[in-house]
Design goal:
The protein is of the alpha+beta class. Helices cover about 45% and strands about 15% of the residues. The chain is elongated.
């Protein structure tokens, strides 16, 4: 019986209290299926493949399901895992797990005797708070964002569904970047929560019931908050969930789960961050996977070796984050990208999703850098681009997109960058790319016109070309052909195309068709011929006033050309 007032020594539990001893050592060169068979025969849950390298049995099974059965087990294994001695304490191991270690290997006398699975350790609220970061920006948009987060926390408390700000919103706060939108996760009915939040802030509610998600656009704080003139931006709400990918590249099947599983299902550690919004914990950081540490180090770390195989679009996301935020993929993440690039062709991954990723990359402020990484990682293979891509073409595409924005010339950046990626592709290779992107009809025809680039650039590169001749060459082709010719051409070609896009194609005669009829031009095709004649003369600088055009038409008629 315990004695009142007596001090008892506290026993620190060792790593053995949380260690799973069911491990087996296999060669990293062993095919996935053979390594899995070895594990099952030994009754092991984890295979050790060398120093700091291991893989779970279920991960090998998943790799086999996704078509990687003959790949080396070492390619799908975790690497850089920490190893502790068997005398280590549980607290030491938990600190490693909270720092982002998915597995901690346990060693005795130079041999791995077990492992601690990070997924079996519950998330902890970090001691830090992001509240000062939210409050740091002293403007009404920041005030409105803070009001929204507090309102969301109170609504979640009232519904019995804890709410959290998550993902890119938290990442950008830690990076010191103003988040454009707010991402919320609710442990419970996310759609019901979104409906209640929409009642509070107004705006348009869009529900995606099959995924348990919703979005609110155009909302604002109520008049009583003193912020009714400040737009809240887009608010995305999702139920906390786990995901299962039935095939590599397929859309996931989802089911409700807790916050910990929702964070673990994500792509990168910097996106596996959450901030508690409940009034009694408001602003506390939830970081079970070491995301804050990676944000500070500007490190992009995938959460699983197979993250890019289960969803190859994450490769393009990695390129965008690297370009926009200056995050550097670590060695394990780059290995995962290499595995996914060579594991294609991903029939379950739709062309629509791939085209969307291309559009997102093209919309980045540093789009050229994003595409450069995509090319360096050979991820263009996923778009069925197999022709050698010259990095200079990507730099040119970024310049062209920048010029068009500055000049007020509307071009589609996605078209510009796809043209840059395929500008040297033969027609058959381009067709395979457009097939993979599921482009049909007018969008496909526009990009197919890029095949005209080489002869068009040669024609526009002539030493002596009148403006009307430049106009004639470019009016006869779709705009993407002109953009592709710009990418292939020299300075003179580029100047002429820019002149045409910004000025030349907008030139019109002062006289209208009705004016020409009044001057005696016969009704019918002669009117079009006269307008074309006037436009050519105006392009070449031969006309100024309305009277000069009238005189030219009269001369044209009396010469017999307009008869």
């Amino acid at each position: 019986m315990a004695k009142a007032g007596h001090a008892y020594p506290q026993v620190e539990p060792g790593v053995a209290a949380v260690m799973d001893p069911r491990v087996v050592t296999v060669s990293p060169a062993l095919p996935v299926t053979r390594a899995l068979a070895r594990m099952r025969a030994a009754g092991a849950r984890l295979a050790v493949l060398g120093p700091g390298r291991a893989v779970r049995a279920r991960e090998l099974a998943q790799a086999a399901t996704w078509g990687l059965s003959q790949r080396r087990a070492g390619e799908v294994a975790w690497r850089g895992l920490p190893t502790v001695l068997v005398r280590a304490t549980e607290v030491q191991v938990r600190r490693l797990v909270q720092g982002g270690a998915p597995l901690v290997l346990v060693q005795r006398k130079g041999r791995i005797i077990g492992a601690v699975d990070g997924e079996r350790q519950g998330p902890m609220l970090a001691e830090s708070s992001v509240l000062p970061r939210i409050e740091r920006v002293a403007d009404r948009h920041a005030e409105a964002r803070l009001w929204l987060l507090r309102a969301a926390g109170k609504i979640g408390e009232g519904l019995g569904s804890p709410a959290y700000a998550v993902g890119g919103f938290v990442r950008d706060l830690l990076l010191g970047v103003a988040p454009p939108d707010v991402d919320l996760v609710v442990e419970g009915d996310g759609v019901g929560f979104a409906r209640r939040l929409a009642e509070e802030i107004g705006g348009t509610l869009l529900v995606h019931g099959s995924f348990g998600t919703a979005s609110i656009e155009g909302g604002c704080a109520p008049a009583g908050a003193g912020l009714d003139d400040v737009a809240l931006g887009r608010v995305d709400v999702a139920s906390a969930r786990r995901e299962h990918y039935p095939a590599a590249g397929a859309l996931p099947e989802v089911e409700p789960a807790g916050l910990a599983e929702d964070l673990r299902r994500r792509d990168f550690s910097v996106n596996a961050l959450a901030v508690a919004l409940a009034p009694d914990r408001f602003g506390r950081l939830v970081d079970p996977l070491g995301g804050e540490r990676d944000v500070r180090a500007r490190r992009l770390r995938a959460l699983r070796p197979l993250a890019f195989v289960e969803d190859p679009t994450r490769i393009f996301r990695a390129a965008r984050y690297s370009a926009r935020l200056g995050l550097r993929p670590d060695a394990a993440t780059l290995a995962g990208i290499r595995l996914a690039v060579t594991a294609g062709p991903y029939p379950a991954l739709s062309g629509h999703r791939l085209w969307h990723e291309l559009e997102l990359a093209a919309g980045e402020a540093r789009a050229g850098k994003a595409f450069e990484l995509i090319v360096r990682w050979n991820a263009v293979n996923i778009w069925n681009i197999t022709t050698l891509v010259h990095l200079k073409a990507l730099a040119s595409a970024e310049r062209l997109a920048g010029w068009s924005a500055a000049a007020g010339v509307a071009v589609d950046p996605a078209e510009v960058f796809l043209l840059a990626l395929t500008v040297t592709s033969p027609a058959s290779a381009l067709a395979r790319t457009l097939d993979r992107l599921a482009l049909t009809g007018e969008p496909r025809a526009r990009l197919e016109a890029g095949a005209m680039a080489a002869p068009l650039a040669r024609r526009l590169g002539g030493a002596r070309l009148r403006p009307s001749e430049v106009d004639e060459a470019l009016t006869a082709v779709p705009e993407p052909a002109a953009l592709a010719a710009w990418l292939r051409g020299g300075p003179a070609v580029r100047r002429r195309i820019q002149w045409y896009l910004a000025h030349g194609r907008a030139v019109r005669p002062r006289l209208s068709g009705e004016d020409l009829l009044a001057l005696g031009v016969p009704r019918g095709p002669r009117v079009g011929e006269a307008l074309a004649m006037l436009r050519r003369r105006r392009l070449d600088g031969g006309l100024g006033s309305l009277a000069e055009e009238q005189d030219l038409v009269k001369e044209w008629l009396t010469s017999g050309k307009g008869a």
